[in-house]
Amino acid sequence: MPDDMDRATALTEAHHQESLAAVTRRLRQPGTPDCEICGEPIPARRRQEMPSARRCRPCQEAMETRRAR
Ligand SMILES: [Zn+2]
Fold this sequence. Notes:
It contains three helices and no strands. The protein has 69 residues and is mainly α. The termini are far apart. The protein has two domains: 1-30; 34-69, no CATH class. The chain has helices at residues 2-27, 44-49, 57-68. The longest helix is centred in the first third of the chain and has 26 residues, at 2-27. It binds zinc ion. Residues 35, 37-38, 40, 55-56, 58-59 line the site of zinc ion.
C-alpha cells in the first residue's frame, strides 16, 4: 500500500536524521572546542599539538598570514 510505503520512508528518514544528530552529539562532547572563526570542531591532533588552540589550522594560518603583513 502506498500509504504504508510513505510512512516507512518517513520513519526511515526520521531515524536517519536522529542517528546523524546522535553522532554529532557524540563528536561534540562537552569540552570539545570549536574553531572560533569557522565554528568547526578543532581536530584532536591539533589539540594535542597545541592544547590552547582556539582556531583550526586553516583559520590560524589565515590569521597569521594576515598579521604578518
Ligand atoms: Zn576554523
